[in-house]
Amino acid sequence: MKRRYAVLLMGALALPLLAQASCESVQADISKKIINNGVAESDFTLDIVPNDQADQAGGQVVGHCENDTQKIVYKKNGRDADSNVADSAGSSQDGPAQ
């Protein structure tokens, strides 16, 4: 019985690490979609920011993670900083509700 509690405790302690990894995987997925749409990897950045800081991040929110407590913000580098990212670049979580 003690072993079972130890396993549950270890799982609970690992949960924040798993949540961060999921944010990183969502960010990587979005990055891949943007690159596949013809944007060079050096022409943009994706930042993971807390929800309350997404408006101050200075970019376009293209995804979310960690149970919608974090936002992924797209920023265009270079002279075309006002360009918008393609609609298809966001995560599947950001699609319209059906």
Could you describe the 3D structure shown?
With 98 residues, the protein is of the alpha+beta class. The protein has one domain (20-94). It is built from 1 helix and 3 strands; from the N terminus they run H-E-E-E. The chain has one helix at residues 2-36; strands spanning 44-50, 60-65, 70-76. The protein has a 3-stranded antiparallel β-sheet with strand order 1-3-2, with helices on one face. Strand 2 (60-65) and strand 3 form a beta hairpin. This is DUF1161 domain-containing protein. Residues 85-98 have a biased composition (Polar residues). Residues 1-21 form the signal peptide. It comes from Pantoea wallisii. Keywords: Signal.
Name the structural class.
Answer: alpha+beta
Shape: elongated
For the record, the count of structural domains works out to 1
Straight-line distance between termini: 45 Å
- Tell me about the largest β-sheet: 3 strands, antiparallel
- The helix tally amounts to 1
The number of strands is: 3
Task: State the oligomer.
Answer: single chain
Helix content: 25-40%
> Order of strands side by side in the largest beta sheet?
1-3-2
User: How much of the sequence is in beta strands?
Assistant: 15-25%
The H/E string reads HEEE
Mean pLDDT: 78
Protein name: DUF1161 domain-containing protein
Region (Disordered): 76-98
Pfam families: DUF1161 (PF06649)
Signal peptide: 1-21
